[in-house]
């Protein structure tokens, strides 16, 4: 068998999952085919994340585990890229710790991967190339997508916000917006190919266009995309509450293709902590945005990200977070324990919170969030919801997909409905997922 194979291991968020699709696109172009196991690959790529320490530890563990394989398979190429390598000194540290790694690249030179692999194939010495400065936004290689009927589309890169806990602005650089005509063309061609759900990606989609003197903006981009009247769903993430505007809410209200689900990370409930986080809004201001959204779009649901154990967080501060979960009526929340990231402002703050206190708070928060999510699930019982079927679960013998609000639903079907919108009557709604039957 002459074919060459790649295996990509991805850590972190959807942004990274999509970036792995771009890496896959480059490797496919070079003649590599995907394979499910590192053992069968000619090149293994680690697309890393460093937003929290555990994501980094996870990658370290997995890279280390390949040492044996590399010994027995000298021609195997091992490449490490993504956010982790962008941290100062990290590339050198990686090379020292794992001398068997062949290529180290960063987030800014993703487009250079082909060159780096070709260079490594020509020489013995490893290739380490991590750029400090942002690269040009290139539209070079077509991503190799594996998430049909869903597709991710970047609308911007980087972040200018410098929330004090967050490493993203350091490893992904300043905000750069893609040209609207490129985005619209990509979405149109995805719809031509039969994709049914498009998710627009950016660290803060509300500042889309700010780097182009306001020549274009996010609500207008949504409006432009929705000129296409074919049946599809449009989602976006993430919205920073400080920039969440009435015009954006209007754009959602005007266009039924846009899902009535807004992900609006709040992070914390205490005004003092929000200020220390540099979030630029208060508990009341956040709730005002939630109210504005619900008033204009009553069937809108809101999800959020919440962090516990930020430096100096007291029990009273934490209580405010719980109050906010109650008041905002989130349909679900992604919850995190604050992780100290070297190089950020918060890492140097006094009053880092002990692990046992953090653990106790996250458990209480998760239990509140879960009980709310279960309550919301119950409201689905007996209802008919439209589900976009994503896959077939061979083990369980059922199809699965999501409704507009991102709820997973399972249902049997005699025909293959992957990629189709189906109406499902919900018969069971325990926990977070739904079970039902197709109705015609
Ligand atoms: N520790 C824990 N969680 C973090 N996030 C960002 N930085 C950190 C950190 N240092 C969370 C935020 C953000 C989500 C993507 O990750 O809640 O919204
Ligand atoms: Fe990080 Fe804040 Fe930027 Fe989000 S908005 S990526 S939390 S700095």
From TrEMBL:
Residues 378-440 form the TRAM domain. [4Fe-4S] cluster 1 binds at residues 13, 49, 83. It comes from Candidatus Borkfalkia ceftriaxoniphila. Pfam families: Radical_SAM (PF04055), TRAM (PF01938), UPF0004 (PF00919). HAMAP family: tRNA_metthiotr_MiaB. Its EC number is 2.8.4.3. It is an enzyme of class 2 (transferase). CDD domains: Radical_SAM. Gene3D superfamilies: Methylthiotransferase, N-terminal domain, tm_1862 like domain. InterPro entries: Elp3/MiaA/NifB-like_rSAM, Methylthiotransferase, Methylthiotransferase_CS, Methylthiotransferase_N, Methylthiotransferase_N_sf, MiaB_methiolase, rSAM, rSAM_horseshoe. Its cofactor is [4Fe-4S] cluster. Binds 2 [4Fe-4S] clusters. One cluster is coordinated with 3 cysteines and an exchangeable S-adenosyl-L-methionine. This is tRNA-2-methylthio-N(6)-dimethylallyladenosine synthase. [4Fe-4S] cluster 2 binds at residues 159, 163, 166. The keyword Iron applies. Catalyzes the methylthiolation of N6-(dimethylallyl)adenosine (i(6)A), leading to the formation of 2-methylthio-N6-(dimethylallyl)adenosine (ms(2)i(6)A) at position 37 in tRNAs that read codons beginning with uridine. Belongs to the methylthiotransferase family. MiaB subfamily. The lineage of its organism: Bacteria, Bacillati, Bacillota, Clostridia, Christensenellales. It is found in: Cytoplasm. One of its GO terms (molecular function) is tRNA-2-methylthio-N(6)-dimethylallyladenosine(37) synthase activity.
């Amino acid at each position: 068998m002459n074919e060459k194979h790649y295996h990509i291991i991805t850590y972190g968020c959807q942004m990274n999952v999509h970036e792995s699709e771009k890496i896959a696109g480059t490797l496919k172009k070079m003649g590599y085919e995907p394979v499910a196991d590192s053992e069968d690959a000619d090149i293994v790529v680690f697309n890393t994340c460093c937003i929290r320490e555990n994501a980094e530890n996870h990658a370290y563990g997995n890279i280390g585990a390949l040492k044996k394989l590399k010994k027995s398979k000298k021609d195997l190429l091992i490449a490490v890229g993504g956010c982790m390598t962008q941290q100062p000194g990290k590339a050198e540290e990686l090379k020292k710790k794992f001398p068997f790694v062949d290529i180290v690249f960063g987030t800014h030179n993703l487009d250079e991967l082909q060159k780096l692999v070709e260079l490594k194939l020509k020489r013995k010495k490893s290739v380490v190339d991590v750029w400090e400065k942002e690269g040009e936004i290139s539209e070079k290689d077509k991503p190799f997508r594996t998430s049909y009927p869903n597709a991710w589309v970047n609308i911007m890169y980087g972040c200018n916000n410098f929330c004090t806990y967050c490493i993203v602005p350091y490893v992904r650089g300043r905000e750069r917006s893609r040209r609207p005509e490129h985005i619209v063309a990509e979405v149109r061609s995805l719809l031509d190919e039969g994709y049914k759900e498009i998710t627009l990606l950016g660290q803060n989609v509300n500042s889309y266009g700010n780097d182009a003197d306001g020549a274009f903006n996010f609500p207008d981009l949504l409006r432009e995309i929705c000129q296409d009247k074919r049946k599809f769903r449009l989602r976006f993430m993430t919205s920073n509450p400080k920039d969440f505007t009435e015009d954006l809410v209007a754009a959602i209200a005007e266009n039924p293709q846009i899902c009535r689900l807004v992900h609006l990370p709040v992070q914390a409930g205490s005004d003092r902590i929000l200020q220390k986080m540099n979030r630029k809004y208060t508990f009341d201001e956040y709730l005002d945005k939630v109210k504005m959204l619900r008033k204009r779009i009553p069937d809108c649901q809101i999800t959020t990200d919440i962090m516990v154990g930020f430096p100096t967080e007291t029990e009273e501060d934490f209580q405010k977070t719980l109050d906010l979960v109650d008041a905002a009526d989130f349909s679900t929340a992604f919850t995190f324990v604050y992780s100290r990231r070297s190089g950020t402002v918060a890492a140097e703050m006094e009053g880092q919170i002990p692990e046992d206190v953090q653990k106790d708070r996250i458990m209480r928060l998760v239990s509140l969030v879960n009980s709310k999510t279960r309550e919301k699930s119950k409201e689905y019982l007996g209802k008919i919801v439209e589900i976009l079927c994503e896959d077939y679960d061979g083990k369980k013998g059922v199809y699965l997909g999501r409704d507009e609000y991102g709820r997973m639903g399972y249902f049997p079907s005699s025909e293959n409905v992957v990629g189709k919108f189906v109406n499902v009557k919900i018969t069971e709604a325990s926990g977070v997922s739904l079970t039902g039957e197709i109705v015609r």
